[in-house]
Amino acid sequence: MNGKPLTQAHGYPVRILIPGRYGQKQPKWLVKMEAITRTKQGYWERQGWSNRAEIPTHAMTRQIQTQRVWNRQPTANLSPSGESGWRQGVLIAGIALDRALPIQTVMVSTDSGQTWHQATQNQPPTPHEWTLWQYRWQPQQPGSYTIMAYAITQRETQPIEDSDRRDGSSGVLQIQVTLER
């Protein structure tokens, strides 16, 4: 891994990496392999999770100004002034990924999806690496706002609604931002 021997924490002696699939399809600490003639479900599949475990096209907001946000911490409160005050503009940043294709565009909304703006993004060397994106928002007044982002590839546009959470989250994460007076 990264030019060095695989460590115990990362799956020594052998680990399988299958690009474009979630972690349950990337077993670590392999000590034995068995050839079988029929399909066998693993632990997660027996719990109802996808057998394919393909990573859907998605973008996620991970940062509002200096505050980290995500699905279990979906709120941010910003004061109007100071180094990270909202009156100087609000940095919205995140990641995007697809199972096999490069992310072409990331779109960001600051008004619950009524309008969308293109974010700036990097172009990683392979589609199996996170695309990092950011958008600089210049709000005009205090209040509560819903921030959303979605990704587009050559194949598809990320769906707004999540159709099946057990197949990997594919819907648009909504972050609630309060701009204080």
Distinctive features:
single chain, 181 residues, Immunoglobulin-like, five-stranded antiparallel sheet, 1 helix, 2% helix
What would you note in describing this structure?
- With 181 residues, this protein is mainly β.
- The chain has two domains: 13-54, no CATH class; 58-179, Sandwich (Immunoglobulin-like).
- 2% of the residues lie in helices and 29% in strands.
- The protein is built from one helix and ten strands; from the N terminus they run αββββββββββ.
- Strands 2-1-4-8-7 form a five-stranded antiparallel β-sheet, with no helix packed on it.
- A hairpin with a 7-residue loop joins strand 5 and strand 6 (117-118).
How is the secondary structure organized here?
Blueprint: H1 43-46, E1 58-64, E2 67-68, E3 75-78, E4 90-97, E5 105-109, E6 117-118, E7 120-121, E8 131-137, E9 143-152, E10 175-179
